[in-house]
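Known limitations

Files may contain more than one protein. Parsers should not assume a single record per file. Below, a two-record file is shown to illustrate correct handling: read the sequence, read the token line, then continue until end of file.
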Amino acid sequence: MPTIGVKIVNKSPNDLPAYATAGSSGMDVRAFLDGPRLLQPLERALIPTGIFIELPQGYEVQVRPRSGLAIKYGITCLNTPGTIDADYRGEIKIILINLSQEEQVIHPGDRIAQMVIQKVEKIEWISVPELEMTERNAGGFGHTGKQ
């Protein structure tokens, strides 16, 4: 599979984001904290990573939750998937929320999210007086039923 080169600055002591397995789509990203960060139930926090990237034009990073954190601890990402645009040069920070009923602790170096690199297609709007009809048309929000 072809790869693209992406410039990265890591101001943390953590490893660079990495694919956990050969078939992984996302790279795990780690918390860059001075010490443990307590998350109360329903509390959200912006967690720094110490990572700065320079994506090529035409690409984005999608920040997604880690399934293990979600099912085991009730910790997930808000604004999911979060988008990091090709022209952003600031530190990557992850918005976490504790959806469990117990307080949870994020430790320095914990894997807190995953980043997926995607190509981005640009479009041009074409104003028309009406749209073509389809079988579905405007049906949505469960219009096909539950079963």
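...continuing to the second record:
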Amino acid sequence: MLKAVLVLVATAIAGFAGYVAMQPPGYTVTRQATIAAPPAVIYPHIANLKRWDDWSPWAKKDPNAKVQFSGPESGVGSKFTWSGNSDVGAGAMTIVESTPDQRVAIKLDLTAPIEGTSDVVLALQPEGGGRTSVRWSIAGQQGFIDRAFCTLLGIDLDEMIGTDYEKGLANLKNVVEAAPRADANRG
């Protein structure tokens, strides 16, 4: 009987390991929103990491997180590090590419609760009529242990990250659309 139970357990473990090994190691999560403003109005909100506090969904999850900024005020080399509660963890974001009114690319290094590096991009695409499509995406790799952990806990990265991205884009939309614009005040 014990031998049968051990064979069953070993088979289940091997089956689980095989299933996890077959899961793709790469992940990409993307969300998009349309904002009633031209790219030039939106760009400063994404290229200056200090302004993320106005719209980032994570800023609201832990308003007491310890944060530090370094490098230039905005654009390439601008860096934001944080350490907060279990909802926000700890890590750093560094702008690695910044094309005015078009795109900001960020290297995201998480150190807690898990370690990992991902590539984040916020891309702006004019839609006409003073509207802009904002696409926020993240891409990275997961090792076997990370994939096993997500599988065991039923974590869907697209849902987990995507939900926060949707909140962030909605916040960004509210911030940008509520702000008075110099071009609207010209006579």
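Parsers that stop after the first record will miss the second one. For reference, the second record is described as follows. The chain has a mean pLDDT of 87.
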